[in-house]
Write a structure and sequence with these properties.
235 residues; alpha/beta; 7 helices; 12 strands; 34% helix; 24% strand
Length: 235
């Protein structure tokens, strides 16, 4: 049996401003997508990477990623209008011998390989669903519609979820079917779909490097992390 990593990369990412789709924005001379797929392909646990590309970009994305994946099998499909739809499309093309599925955001280009392998190992160990996460470091306030503080939230039990999220394939496919049957089609968190279907989700430690590139300032931070890695001799 094999593990597949699915990368829904068809979104535009409007918060980054006008320009290319978010997954194709560059850091250190390469698109976010290339960095993200490289991390997945270098993980010992991943056998196949499936990328859901923006409409009209399927051939260009394959040309971009072929040199990145090395010996890992690569499939590129055209994504849907929503992230959930893109994941559903990717699930439909997975080979029958895949039993573990990782879902990874292209906007998290610097996830450590160790995190990828840890998520896959936890699913292999029997978990239905696994999410890497980090502790919340900011003070969280609950506010009303007028912007008045109603109280502070106890952050000790809160975690910021990252990706890749890992799933037993049968559990993930069932959760997606259930959501589609109920008319839910715009969920941005696959673990949320699995929770909705009544399955337990396990949390394991994430990484500070697994942050999501959402705003222009995040591109600057990603460049800094890559510079730090280069200086340390880490690719």
């Amino acid at each position: 049996m094999r593990t597949a990593a699915v990368v829904p990369a068809a979104g535009r990412g409007e918060r980054l401003g006008p320009g290319a789709p978010k997954a194709l924005r560059e850091i250190a001379g390469q698109p976010l997508l290339a960095h993200a797929v490289r991390a997945l392909a270098e993980a010992r646990s991943v056998d196949i990477v499936v990328v859901a590309a923006p409409v009209g970009e399927q051939s260009a994305v394959r040309l971009l990623l072929d040199p990145v994946v090395a010996d890992t099998e690569l499939m590129v499909v055209t994504g849907g209008e929503t992230r959930q739809q893109s994941v559903a499309v990717a699930l439909q093309v997975l080979p029958d011998d895949v039993d573990v599925v990782l879902i990874h955001d292209a906007a998290r280009p610097l996830v450590p390989v160790e995190t990828v392998d840890a998520v896959a190992a936890a699913v292999r160990g029997g978990a239905d669903a696994v999410v890497p996460a980090v502790a919340i470091v900011d003070t969280i306030k609950r506010v009303d519609a007028a912007g008045r503080v109603e109280g502070s939230v106890d952050r000790s039990t809160l975690r910021a979820a990252q990706t890749p999220q890992g799933f037993a394939r049968i559990v993930l496919e069932s959760a997606h079917r259930s959501a589609a049957d109920d008319g839910v089609d715009d969920t941005t968190d696959d673990a949320g779909l699995v929770e909705r279907a009544g399955h337990p989700v396990m949390v394991i430690p994430g990484s500070d490097d697994g942050f999501k590139v959402t705003r222009p300032i995040d591109l600057v931070l990603a460049e800094a992390v890559l510079a730090r890695r280069r200086s340390a001799g880490v690719h």
